Please model this.
Amino acid sequence: MAFTPGETVGSYRIIEKLGHGGMATVYKAYHAPLDRDVAIKVLHPAFKNDPQFFARFQREARIVAKLEHSNIVPVYDFSEHEGEPYLVMRYVQGDTLKPHLQDAPFSPAETLRIMRPVCNALAYAHDRGVLHRDIKPSNVMLTPDGGVYLTDFGLARMVEAGESTLSQDMMVGTPQYISPEQAQGERDLDGRTDIYSLGVVLFEMLTGSVPFSGDTPFAVVHDHIYKPLPLPSAVNPNINPQVEKVILRALAKDKNDRFEKVQDFWQALKNALKPLAAQAPTLAKAVAENPSAAIPAKKSDKKKFIIAGGAIAALLCLCLFAVIAINSENDKEEEQASMPSMHTEMARTPDHPDTQPPADQPPPPPKDSPQNPPPPAEAPPPANNEGDSAAAERLLQEGQRLLADDPMGALPLFLEAIDTDRHFIPAYTAAAEAFVAMDQPLEAADTLQAGIESNPQDLRLRLTLARLQMNYERFPEARATLEDILEAQPNNALAHTGLARIDVAEDDLESAEAHLDQAKQINPNMPEIKIVEAQILWKTGQKREAVQLLREAAQDPKLNESVREELRRLLEKYGQQLPPPK
Model:
């Protein structure tokens, strides 16, 4: 039975049909109680002939619903309508990876941009004992703002081993992407079957074709089991030999010859594609000689960051609260447009103790403050010598004069500053900001990571990295970064509030409130705490209280401009105007 637009299914009103496949049909629907659009996936009606199916469906749906990861499309609900089971999922606006494969081969930067979140999502699920079993391009969602999501976890598990005619006749998994052991009907599968399927996706991204494409599904499955894998370089001669080794290992016929874990696959792929992490301190000369080398061969679909008025609308803000409210996917462009320049937020390095922090940054607490003790680790190593430090400072200042209008021209200066003094923290943040302005966030992250490796005791770069990860909704990575900071400095209010923001984004409001309580104990007067509290109130339906809290926060005449801008944006979103300070 097909649903029709306007029909009510449970508490959901069907809007339109989005598509259908062999196992399910997908609809866009509206959920009035929470005022949001959702996707409803209705399983094939033949499954209701299987007396065990609905119990299996409920069991698997509960398991999948527990997956809470920023790159996994979450399951909100499940039920049945007139005997037909359905899943309710987040509605993700965008395309799947499948139509984008017509543009293959992908550049290394774009390949990393897509594979990284997919690997993160799979690793998270595997660590919790959940396999996907049907990794393919049509199950990878790409949003206009650069988000990457993996969908349809557990669907293959729901329909396998059933007694319905459909489940007996159909193959669980997609022939072009199925692993040999899955094709042979093995039941004792593990994460390596997903790695094989992911390897096929990687093969297709870098060559433009799948390794096996017979005339019939049976022929394709036969080839996966018995036919030697064609060399990727035979299809695309430009493939790096190290990348080819990664593909060949992922697609080994014997699962024991593959990568054991997704994390191993990702690390090998990242190393093979030579990310900036290994090159940042020595890249200055290459970029200076050939500036176009800093630009990826293939532009991503991410929204370009706004450059205006001498301030980069970047995602790299050291102060984790300054300007972002991670409570709605639809706010990303607006959030990015309100970002201040990172270097105006960045405190100076220990090499310049006489330099005061920027006026729009709260002054640091006294060194002997019991609420904000210094990190137990030693201070960063000193610069090579005073001449190196001064030279790095000059290069930084010269690059900053170019940054707003010519980030590509500024980048070699920042990288040369890093070469000159690897402990000069502002050079790393400025280089990262330049990469973001050129729409290269992966390189920005790797630059920050290189700075962390050279300055492991300095928490500022970790805070900046967390900010970048949060803005790209890489919440597990951002959480890990913030937790590393708290391990070194347990009373870091910035990190606690950053964790609260992640919790709000992931709808874990109880945890968000716990982190806010910790931040309040450290610095109860931070206006950013009120911003997160207001977001929690809004999400729980207390909209009037949320607006009142924001208006009260806006009355503070001491607010810095970035916080005031966030208050203005949130109030406008809630239909209010920013009141003038008292």
Summary: The longest strand covers residues 12-20.
